[in-house]
Specification:
The protein has 334 residues and is α/β, with parallel strands linked by helices. The chain folds into 2 domains: 137 residues, NAD(P)-binding Rossmann-like Domain (Rossmann fold, 3-Layer(aba) Sandwich), CATH 3.40.50.720; 182 residues, Dihydrodipicolinate Reductase, domain 2. Strand 6, helix 4 and strand 7 form a beta-alpha-beta unit. The protein has a 7-stranded mixed β-sheet, sandwiched between helices. Helix 1 packs across helix 10 and helix 5 packs across helix 7.
Protein backbone atom coordinates (compact mmCIF):
# COMPACT_ATOMS: atom_id res chain seq x y z
CA UNK A 1 0.00 0.00 0.00
CA UNK A 2 1.14 3.51 -0.82
CA UNK A 3 2.73 5.42 2.05
CA UNK A 4 0.97 8.64 3.02
CA UNK A 5 1.97 12.13 4.03
CA UNK A 6 0.11 12.57 7.30
CA UNK A 7 -0.41 15.79 9.25
CA UNK A 8 -1.27 15.94 12.94
CA UNK A 9 -2.72 19.28 14.05
CA UNK A 10 -2.28 19.55 17.82
CA UNK A 11 0.62 17.11 17.83
CA UNK A 12 2.03 18.12 21.22
CA UNK A 13 -1.22 17.55 23.15
CA UNK A 14 -2.23 14.37 24.97
CA UNK A 15 -4.23 13.04 22.03
CA UNK A 16 -1.72 14.19 19.42
CA UNK A 17 1.14 12.38 21.13
CA UNK A 18 -1.04 9.28 21.47
CA UNK A 19 -1.71 9.42 17.72
CA UNK A 20 2.03 9.12 17.14
CA UNK A 21 2.12 5.97 19.27
CA UNK A 22 -0.90 4.49 17.51
CA UNK A 23 0.60 5.16 14.06
CA UNK A 24 3.63 3.13 15.14
CA UNK A 25 1.63 0.31 16.71
CA UNK A 26 -0.73 -0.10 13.74
CA UNK A 27 2.22 -0.02 11.35
CA UNK A 28 0.50 2.65 9.32
CA UNK A 29 2.06 3.16 5.85
CA UNK A 30 3.75 6.52 6.26
CA UNK A 31 6.11 8.49 4.06
CA UNK A 32 6.18 11.76 5.98
CA UNK A 33 4.79 13.29 9.16
CA UNK A 34 3.82 16.96 9.18
CA UNK A 35 3.26 18.12 12.74
CA UNK A 36 1.56 21.34 13.81
CA UNK A 37 1.29 22.91 17.24
CA UNK A 38 0.99 26.25 18.94
CA UNK A 39 3.51 29.01 18.30
CA UNK A 40 5.25 28.11 21.56
CA UNK A 41 5.68 24.51 20.33
CA UNK A 42 7.15 25.49 16.96
CA UNK A 43 10.58 23.98 16.46
CA UNK A 44 10.12 21.15 18.95
CA UNK A 45 11.03 17.66 17.75
CA UNK A 46 8.73 14.66 18.25
CA UNK A 47 9.69 11.05 17.62
CA UNK A 48 7.76 8.50 15.57
CA UNK A 49 8.81 5.42 13.60
CA UNK A 50 12.47 5.86 14.49
CA UNK A 51 12.67 9.43 13.22
CA UNK A 52 12.26 12.90 14.67
CA UNK A 53 9.84 15.34 13.09
CA UNK A 54 9.70 19.12 13.67
CA UNK A 55 6.62 20.92 14.93
CA UNK A 56 5.49 23.67 12.57
CA UNK A 57 2.71 26.24 12.31
CA UNK A 58 -0.64 25.10 10.91
CA UNK A 59 -0.30 27.30 7.83
CA UNK A 60 3.09 25.77 7.07
CA UNK A 61 1.62 22.27 7.23
CA UNK A 62 -1.27 23.30 4.96
CA UNK A 63 1.19 24.68 2.41
CA UNK A 64 2.92 21.27 2.33
CA UNK A 65 -0.32 19.61 1.12
CA UNK A 66 -0.45 16.36 3.12
CA UNK A 67 -2.78 13.55 2.05
CA UNK A 68 -4.68 13.52 5.33
CA UNK A 69 -4.78 15.79 8.39
CA UNK A 70 -5.65 14.45 11.82
CA UNK A 71 -6.98 17.34 13.92
CA UNK A 72 -6.89 17.38 17.73
CA UNK A 73 -6.37 21.01 18.66
CA UNK A 74 -9.84 22.02 19.82
CA UNK A 75 -12.99 23.14 18.04
CA UNK A 76 -11.85 26.73 17.40
CA UNK A 77 -8.79 25.54 15.48
CA UNK A 78 -10.88 22.98 13.60
CA UNK A 79 -13.53 25.50 12.61
CA UNK A 80 -10.87 27.86 11.28
CA UNK A 81 -8.53 25.45 9.53
CA UNK A 82 -10.43 22.27 8.59
CA UNK A 83 -12.34 23.95 5.73
CA UNK A 84 -9.07 25.36 4.37
CA UNK A 85 -7.46 21.92 4.37
CA UNK A 86 -10.57 20.39 2.78
CA UNK A 87 -10.64 23.10 0.09
CA UNK A 88 -7.06 22.12 -0.77
CA UNK A 89 -8.18 18.53 -1.39
CA UNK A 90 -6.84 17.23 1.94
CA UNK A 91 -8.94 14.74 3.90
CA UNK A 92 -9.55 16.01 7.44
CA UNK A 93 -10.34 13.68 10.35
CA UNK A 94 -11.34 15.91 13.24
CA UNK A 95 -11.32 14.92 16.89
CA UNK A 96 -13.08 18.06 18.20
CA UNK A 97 -16.79 18.73 18.58
CA UNK A 98 -16.78 21.24 15.70
CA UNK A 99 -18.24 19.05 12.94
CA UNK A 100 -19.89 16.12 14.71
CA UNK A 101 -23.48 17.21 14.21
CA UNK A 102 -22.92 18.90 10.85
CA UNK A 103 -25.24 17.13 8.43
CA UNK A 104 -22.61 17.24 5.68
CA UNK A 105 -19.94 15.52 7.81
CA UNK A 106 -20.08 11.82 8.70
CA UNK A 107 -19.54 10.87 12.34
CA UNK A 108 -17.53 7.68 12.18
CA UNK A 109 -16.53 4.68 14.25
CA UNK A 110 -15.12 2.36 11.55
CA UNK A 111 -16.35 -0.90 13.10
CA UNK A 112 -19.85 0.55 13.52
CA UNK A 113 -20.57 2.74 10.49
CA UNK A 114 -17.46 2.91 8.31
CA UNK A 115 -19.68 2.20 5.32
CA UNK A 116 -21.13 5.71 5.69
CA UNK A 117 -17.89 7.17 4.31
CA UNK A 118 -18.19 8.44 0.75
CA UNK A 119 -15.54 9.70 -1.72
CA UNK A 120 -16.82 13.29 -1.49
CA UNK A 121 -16.40 13.51 2.29
CA UNK A 122 -13.45 15.78 3.06
CA UNK A 123 -14.18 16.58 6.71
CA UNK A 124 -14.86 13.49 8.82
CA UNK A 125 -15.77 13.80 12.49
CA UNK A 126 -14.51 11.64 15.32
CA UNK A 127 -17.18 11.08 18.02
CA UNK A 128 -16.94 12.15 21.61
CA UNK A 129 -14.89 9.67 23.63
CA UNK A 130 -17.85 8.75 25.84
CA UNK A 131 -20.08 8.01 22.87
CA UNK A 132 -17.32 6.16 21.04
CA UNK A 133 -16.88 3.31 23.51
CA UNK A 134 -20.62 3.14 24.09
CA UNK A 135 -21.62 2.59 20.45
CA UNK A 136 -19.00 -0.14 20.07
CA UNK A 137 -21.09 -2.18 22.51
CA UNK A 138 -24.50 -0.91 21.43
CA UNK A 139 -24.08 -1.76 17.74
CA UNK A 140 -24.12 -5.60 17.89
CA UNK A 141 -26.84 -5.55 20.57
CA UNK A 142 -29.06 -3.12 18.67
CA UNK A 143 -28.70 -5.16 15.49
CA UNK A 144 -29.77 -8.31 17.32
CA UNK A 145 -32.37 -7.15 19.86
CA UNK A 146 -33.31 -3.50 19.00
CA UNK A 147 -32.63 -1.04 21.81
CA UNK A 148 -35.70 0.86 22.97
CA UNK A 149 -33.99 3.09 25.51
CA UNK A 150 -30.92 3.24 27.70
CA UNK A 151 -29.44 5.03 30.69
CA UNK A 152 -25.72 5.75 30.94
CA UNK A 153 -23.76 6.94 33.98
CA UNK A 154 -20.16 7.79 33.17
CA UNK A 155 -17.03 7.85 35.33
CA UNK A 156 -14.69 9.96 33.22
CA UNK A 157 -10.95 10.36 33.58
CA UNK A 158 -9.41 13.78 34.08
CA UNK A 159 -7.29 13.16 30.97
CA UNK A 160 -10.41 13.94 28.99
CA UNK A 161 -10.00 17.55 30.12
CA UNK A 162 -6.30 17.76 29.22
CA UNK A 163 -2.92 18.55 30.70
CA UNK A 164 -4.24 21.26 33.03
CA UNK A 165 -6.54 18.75 34.74
CA UNK A 166 -3.64 16.39 35.34
CA UNK A 167 -1.70 19.28 36.89
CA UNK A 168 -4.65 20.13 39.14
CA UNK A 169 -4.99 16.56 40.40
CA UNK A 170 -1.25 16.16 41.01
CA UNK A 171 -1.12 19.49 42.85
CA UNK A 172 -4.05 18.59 45.08
CA UNK A 173 -2.54 15.19 45.88
CA UNK A 174 0.49 17.01 47.22
CA UNK A 175 -1.85 18.81 49.61
CA UNK A 176 -1.60 22.12 47.75
CA UNK A 177 -4.52 24.18 46.54
CA UNK A 178 -4.26 24.41 42.75
CA UNK A 179 -3.91 27.83 41.18
CA UNK A 180 -6.20 28.47 38.22
CA UNK A 181 -7.98 25.09 38.55
CA UNK A 182 -9.87 23.78 35.54
CA UNK A 183 -12.65 22.33 37.70
CA UNK A 184 -14.97 24.37 39.96
CA UNK A 185 -14.17 22.11 42.94
CA UNK A 186 -11.24 19.93 44.03
CA UNK A 187 -11.01 16.71 42.00
CA UNK A 188 -8.74 14.67 44.30
CA UNK A 189 -10.80 12.43 46.61
CA UNK A 190 -13.90 13.76 44.90
CA UNK A 191 -16.37 13.11 42.07
CA UNK A 192 -17.92 15.94 40.07
CA UNK A 193 -21.27 15.36 38.31
CA UNK A 194 -20.24 18.13 35.98
CA UNK A 195 -18.60 17.41 32.61
CA UNK A 196 -18.68 20.46 30.32
CA UNK A 197 -21.22 23.27 30.75
CA UNK A 198 -24.85 22.92 31.82
CA UNK A 199 -27.67 23.68 29.42
CA UNK A 200 -31.10 25.09 30.13
CA UNK A 201 -32.55 21.57 30.26
CA UNK A 202 -30.30 20.64 33.21
CA UNK A 203 -28.06 18.37 31.13
CA UNK A 204 -24.45 19.16 30.40
CA UNK A 205 -23.10 19.48 26.88
CA UNK A 206 -21.21 16.19 27.42
CA UNK A 207 -24.45 14.42 28.30
CA UNK A 208 -26.23 15.81 25.26
CA UNK A 209 -23.39 14.64 23.03
CA UNK A 210 -24.23 11.07 24.02
CA UNK A 211 -27.91 11.66 23.24
CA UNK A 212 -27.33 13.15 19.77
CA UNK A 213 -24.19 11.33 18.60
CA UNK A 214 -25.52 7.86 19.39
CA UNK A 215 -28.49 8.44 17.11
CA UNK A 216 -26.29 9.71 14.27
CA UNK A 217 -23.71 6.90 14.46
CA UNK A 218 -26.29 4.11 14.73
CA UNK A 219 -28.41 5.85 12.06
CA UNK A 220 -31.51 5.37 14.18
CA UNK A 221 -33.26 8.31 15.85
CA UNK A 222 -35.35 5.93 17.95
CA UNK A 223 -32.35 4.97 20.10
CA UNK A 224 -32.55 7.14 23.22
CA UNK A 225 -29.56 7.10 25.58
CA UNK A 226 -29.94 9.42 28.59
CA UNK A 227 -26.64 10.24 30.28
CA UNK A 228 -25.27 11.51 33.58
CA UNK A 229 -21.59 12.35 33.15
CA UNK A 230 -19.26 12.37 36.16
CA UNK A 231 -15.61 13.39 36.39
CA UNK A 232 -13.55 11.12 38.68
CA UNK A 233 -9.94 11.36 39.95
CA UNK A 234 -8.66 8.67 37.57
CA UNK A 235 -5.62 9.37 35.43
CA UNK A 236 -6.69 7.41 32.34
CA UNK A 237 -9.75 5.56 31.09
CA UNK A 238 -13.48 6.28 31.01
CA UNK A 239 -15.98 3.88 32.60
CA UNK A 240 -19.70 3.62 31.95
CA UNK A 241 -22.54 1.92 33.80
CA UNK A 242 -25.16 1.20 31.15
CA UNK A 243 -28.77 0.03 31.39
CA UNK A 244 -30.53 -1.08 28.18
CA UNK A 245 -34.09 -2.11 27.38
CA UNK A 246 -34.68 -4.21 24.26
CA UNK A 247 -37.69 -4.92 22.06
CA UNK A 248 -36.71 -8.57 21.66
CA UNK A 249 -35.96 -11.18 24.30
CA UNK A 250 -32.33 -12.16 24.78
CA UNK A 251 -30.13 -14.80 26.41
CA UNK A 252 -27.05 -13.64 28.27
CA UNK A 253 -24.79 -16.24 26.66
CA UNK A 254 -25.88 -14.98 23.25
CA UNK A 255 -25.14 -11.40 24.32
CA UNK A 256 -21.63 -12.33 25.42
CA UNK A 257 -20.97 -14.23 22.18
CA UNK A 258 -22.14 -11.34 20.02
CA UNK A 259 -20.02 -8.84 21.93
CA UNK A 260 -16.94 -11.07 21.86
CA UNK A 261 -17.31 -11.48 18.09
CA UNK A 262 -17.55 -7.74 17.41
CA UNK A 263 -14.24 -6.24 16.20
CA UNK A 264 -12.53 -4.11 18.82
CA UNK A 265 -14.64 -5.32 21.76
CA UNK A 266 -13.21 -7.55 24.50
CA UNK A 267 -15.47 -9.29 27.02
CA UNK A 268 -14.16 -9.49 30.60
CA UNK A 269 -17.05 -10.95 32.55
CA UNK A 270 -16.16 -13.33 35.36
CA UNK A 271 -17.13 -11.49 38.56
CA UNK A 272 -16.63 -14.57 40.77
CA UNK A 273 -12.92 -14.38 39.92
CA UNK A 274 -12.90 -10.57 40.21
CA UNK A 275 -12.53 -10.25 36.43
CA UNK A 276 -14.20 -7.17 35.01
CA UNK A 277 -13.08 -4.09 33.07
CA UNK A 278 -11.16 -1.38 34.91
CA UNK A 279 -9.43 1.82 33.80
CA UNK A 280 -6.18 0.55 35.29
CA UNK A 281 -6.09 -2.48 32.98
CA UNK A 282 -7.62 -0.73 29.97
CA UNK A 283 -4.91 1.95 29.97
CA UNK A 284 -2.80 1.84 26.83
CA UNK A 285 -5.15 -0.61 25.11
CA UNK A 286 -7.06 0.04 21.89
CA UNK A 287 -10.02 -2.22 22.66
CA UNK A 288 -13.31 -1.45 24.37
CA UNK A 289 -13.83 -3.73 27.37
CA UNK A 290 -17.24 -4.87 28.62
CA UNK A 291 -18.32 -6.91 31.63
CA UNK A 292 -20.78 -7.15 34.55
CA UNK A 293 -23.32 -8.33 31.96
CA UNK A 294 -26.55 -9.18 33.76
CA UNK A 295 -30.32 -9.15 33.34
CA UNK A 296 -32.33 -6.48 35.13
CA UNK A 297 -34.13 -7.70 38.23
CA UNK A 298 -37.45 -6.09 37.32
CA UNK A 299 -37.49 -6.17 33.51
CA UNK A 300 -36.78 -9.42 31.65
CA UNK A 301 -35.83 -7.41 28.55
CA UNK A 302 -33.57 -5.08 30.50
CA UNK A 303 -29.81 -5.54 30.86
CA UNK A 304 -26.91 -3.90 32.71
CA UNK A 305 -23.32 -3.64 31.48
CA UNK A 306 -20.06 -2.02 32.53
CA UNK A 307 -17.94 -0.55 29.72
CA UNK A 308 -14.36 0.73 29.99
CA UNK A 309 -11.90 2.10 27.43
CA UNK A 310 -8.79 4.25 27.36
CA UNK A 311 -10.27 7.61 26.38
CA UNK A 312 -7.04 8.76 24.75
CA UNK A 313 -6.93 5.58 22.67
CA UNK A 314 -10.19 4.24 21.19
CA UNK A 315 -11.93 7.29 22.59
CA UNK A 316 -9.79 9.62 20.49
CA UNK A 317 -6.41 8.86 18.87
CA UNK A 318 -6.94 5.22 17.91
CA UNK A 319 -10.29 5.83 16.26
CA UNK A 320 -8.90 8.80 14.32
CA UNK A 321 -6.06 6.71 12.92
CA UNK A 322 -8.42 3.80 12.24
CA UNK A 323 -10.62 6.07 10.10
CA UNK A 324 -7.56 6.97 8.03
CA UNK A 325 -6.66 3.29 7.87
CA UNK A 326 -10.17 2.39 6.71
CA UNK A 327 -10.05 5.03 3.96
CA UNK A 328 -6.59 3.92 2.88
CA UNK A 329 -7.69 0.30 2.51
CA UNK A 330 -10.72 1.51 0.55
CA UNK A 331 -8.40 3.19 -1.94
CA UNK A 332 -8.88 6.85 -0.99
CA UNK A 333 -5.26 7.73 -1.79
CA UNK A 334 -4.36 4.99 -4.27
Amino acid sequence: MKGLRIAIIGATGLVGRTMLSVLEELDFPLDELLLAGSESSRGKQLSCLGQTWPVRRVDEVLASRPDVALFSAGSDVSKKWAPKFAAAGITVIDNSSAWRMDASCPLIVPEVNGDALQPHHRIIANPNCTTMQLVMVLKPLHDAFTIQRGIVSTYQSITGTGKAAIAQLETERRGVVAENPVYPHPIDLNCLPHCDVFGENGYTREEMKVWHETKKILRDDSVSMTCTAVRVPVMGGHSESVYLEFEQEFELDDVRERLAAFPGVAVQDNPSAAEYPMPLTAAGQNEVFVGRIRRDLANARGMHLWIVADNLRKGAATNTVQIAQYLHKAGRWS
